[in-house]
Amino acid sequence: MSDRAPSPSKHSSPEAIFRAHGGQLRMSEALRLGISRYQLYKMRDEGVIEPISRGLYRLVELPPITHPDLVAVASQFPQGVLCLISALAWHEMTTQIPHEIHLAVPREARLPRLDYPPVAGYRFSEPAFSAGIEETTVDGMRLRVYSMEKTLADCFKFRNRLGTDLVMEALQLYRKRHRFNLTKLLEYARICRVEQVMRPYLEAHL
Fold it and tell me: Residue ranges of the AbiEi antitoxin N-terminal domain (predicted)?
């Protein structure tokens, strides 16, 4: 007979399992930790947990979610990266309010689709997809977003779709609110193949 203590997740209440994991679980995680579908739905119907996106639940007792749209997208597309206008908004480099979440995925991946919030997917080739990714946590969910300098390079690459005025505003706000890192800007400009386009604008802001 083993003296090993039983796994807490298998012998704790469903609420305790949620709390032990930050109060938020995907259905697949809950099932793996010993919570049955019946228990999960019972907790939902009793108002103990609430769905915040398809297949993602959190305890109602937790503080309100500050970025519900980003949490929903991050939970459904964990390998996607916040890009373009959504990344500009995250870094406070635009006065525009995004009406959809801009998300980059690898070239071979399927474009992300959601009924809500609306998602605009972009396929990025390597090395542009993997370059400049930063990771942070939003309401307990991991979020991947491109750095400020990588986002500017992406915006120059998609300038015809986004509009030149938006790109110029982003560059001005970056210059005003953050340390102007010419080395990084040129590095990502080369990766995104827009160095010749960006360089005159960057030099004008030195």
Answer: 17-60
